[in-house]
Amino acid sequence: MNYDHSCFHCTKDQRLQALMLKIAELRISTLYLFREQTYRGRCLLSFNGHKGELYELSNEEQTLYMHDLAQAAHAVQKACNPDNINYGAYSDKLPHLHFHIVPKYKNEYSWGSTFDMSPDNKAWLSDGEYDQLIKSIKDNL
Ligand SMILES: [Zn+2]
Fold it and tell me: What spacing in Å lies between the alpha carbon of 89 and ligand 1's midpoint?
C-alpha cells in the first residue's frame, strides 16, 4: 500500500482529526464525518493508500472504491434524508484520492449550486451530536 509520511490521509494525525471523525473502514477506503456540518451529514471517503488519481488505481480498486462511495452515499441518504447528494474530488494541494460526499437540502445553503468547500458561517456540533450522527450513518452502512 502506498504511503506518504507528509500526507495526513496516510498518517491520520492531528491534522486529519481536526477536520474529521472516523465513521468506518469500508472495502478499500475509510469513511469520515466532516466536522464542519453546514451540510448535515457531510462526509469524506479517503482511499486506503497514497494514490492521487482514479486512473492510478487498478480496475479492481476502482470498482471497490466506487462500491464504497455508493454504499457511503446510501448510508448518508438513509441517515439524513437529504434532497440530493453532491460529490466532489479536488485535491489541488493534497494528492491523496478522496471524495467529498455532501448532502444538499432544498432551500438550504447553496441548493441548486455547487457546494461550498469552506462555508463562511461554519456549523460545529457538540461531541454528543457528532457521536449521534456517526452512529446513525454507521448503522445504515
Ligand atoms: Zn496519503
Answer: 14
Read off the pLDDT of residues 55-101 as tens digits, 9 standing for 90 and up: 999 999 999 999 999 999 999 999 999 999 999 999 888 899 999 99
Question: Which amino acid type is present at position 56?
Answer: E
For residue 122, report the distance from its CA to the centre of ligand 1, in Å. 26
CATH of the domain at 56: 3.30.428.10
Cell matching residue 85? 447528494
Please give the tally of structural domains in the chain.
1
Classified as helix, coil or strand, 138 is helix
Let me know if 107 is exposed, middle or buried by CB neighbors in 10 A (0-12, 13-18, 19+): exposed
* Alpha carbon distance 100, 31 (integer Å): 10
Position 24 scores a pLDDT of: 98
Helix %, strand %, coil % of the chain (to 5) = 35, 20, 45
